[in-house]
């Protein structure tokens, strides 16, 4: 049995099991009920936003091209690092951008987070290809498809024998930017939802003004947002199991299981973050 429900993961696509879906929905409903009981409607809305943010993070991770150690040796396409580490980098860049813009309203903050995450991945993917092409003399060639779905470029003539491809094809670059954008958006949404709850509850709990509790609220929201992002990124990494080239990779079709797992994990961790101030 795998951590996400169903039989152990193989090279194919494992769909979510009925037991996993029903059990996940039950846990989510229980968490929503607790949030409403503890902090009323503010807690309910916040937890829904946290769940949506977690789902965006897990879904976005499946777009990010990750090649791991084989990519570092030019024997697999993607960025030479792990899934969780790369996703965390994009998410944190987006989270910082969104947190900086929080005072300008929800829409501007979410846009700032999305742009921050997408920009980080765009720069990373660009420098990866510069290193591969000009530093290692490796052309971009996918090992999963023979033709780039966007540009129409063909890969077989440029793919070295004995490898799974190499470099960073354009479709992988686009996937990385999309994944970073979704990760930054999701991480920022989690942060803003928690910040809203803390700014509403802490002044009453601590008998202080919003300005006085602002440092505590911002710190707690940031800590929990980063933690929840890492939880969802690691869940997605377990679902991918190894490397992934991007949205054209067959492993991309595994995302429904990660989405369900992320929704449940976000609900459970989110209710803990909300209850931290709700039961004081």
How would you describe what is shown here?
This protein has 280 residues and is mainly α. It has one domain. The protein is built from 7 helices and no strands. It has helices spanning 18-61, 68-72, 83-100, 106-135, 170-206, 210-240, 255-278. Helix 1 (18-61) packs across helix 7 (255-278), helix 4 runs antiparallel to helix 5 and helix 5 packs antiparallel against helix 6 (210-240). The longest helix is centred in the first third of the chain and has 44 residues, at 18-61. It is elongated, with a radius of gyration of 20 Å. The two termini are 39 Å apart. Mean pLDDT is 85; it is low at 1-10.
Topology:
Elements: H1 18-61, H2 68-72, H3 83-100, H4 106-135, H5 170-206, H6 210-240, H7 255-278
Helix pairs in contact: 1-5, 1-6, 1-7, 3-4, 3-5, 3-6, 4-5, 5-6, 5-7, 6-7
- Oligomeric state as shown: single chain
Tally of DSSP β-strands: 0
- Strand-and-helix sequence, N→C? HHHHHHH
Query: Looking at the structure, what is the overall shape?
Result: elongated
* Poorly predicted segments: 1-10
Domain count: the total is: 1
> Which structural class fits the helix and strand makeup?
mainly alpha
Number of helices: 7
Strand content: under 5%
**Cα distance, first to last residue?**
39 Å
Largest sheet: none
Average residue pLDDT: 85
- Rg over CA atoms, rounded to whole Å, is 20 Å
What is the helical fraction, as a range of percent?
55-70%
Pfam families: MtrD
Keywords: Cell membrane, Membrane, Methanogenesis, Methyltransferase, One-carbon metabolism, Transferase, Translocase, Transmembrane, Transmembrane helix
Organism: Methanoculleus frigidifontis
Transmembrane segments: 18-38, 44-66, 78-100, 106-134, 170-193, 213-238, 258-279
